Structures are given as structure tokens and as C-alpha cells.
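Incident log, structure service

09:12 report received: a user says their structure output differs between two submissions of the same chain.
09:20 pulled the input from the user's history:
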Amino acid sequence: MMAELSPLFVLCEACGSEGRIYVGALVYEPGCGHPHWGERDAGECPVCHGAGDVEIEAEPIELEDLYSMQGHID
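09:34 re-ran on a clean worker, output below:
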């Protein structure tokens, strides 16, 4: 019997679950006066749309199947 796919939420790999994309750039901090390398916020993550997680479809796995994949002998 084929198991029905069910939704599963996983952390977004594109933004590291922060919901925003940061890029390395020369930045100026107030009062410093000198540029240095830092992170610049490039906006909302286009993959998770700012949520930090994404929904994927996953097939449920039975415990016996997991044991057989790990090499356990019954």
C-alpha cells in the first residue's frame, strides 16, 4: 500500500532560517568614518518569503524500513 504524502516543515537552507538574505559588502557604521567588510541586508528571502522555514512533501517511513536502511538485523 502506498503511503500518502504529508507536509513537513524544514529550516530554509537559502537564508539559514533567518528569513532574510545577507551579503558581504563594504559598510559604513555611524561615527566610525571608515568603510569595513560587513553584512548588508539584501531583503526578504525569496525561497521562504521571510518565514525561515519551507514546506516540503514527505513520504512517511515505517520503523522497520528505517531499521533496514541502517543495517539492523531483526
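09:41 both user submissions now match this output. Likely a transient worker issue. Closing.
09:42 reviewer note: The mean pLDDT is 86. The helical segments are 63-70.
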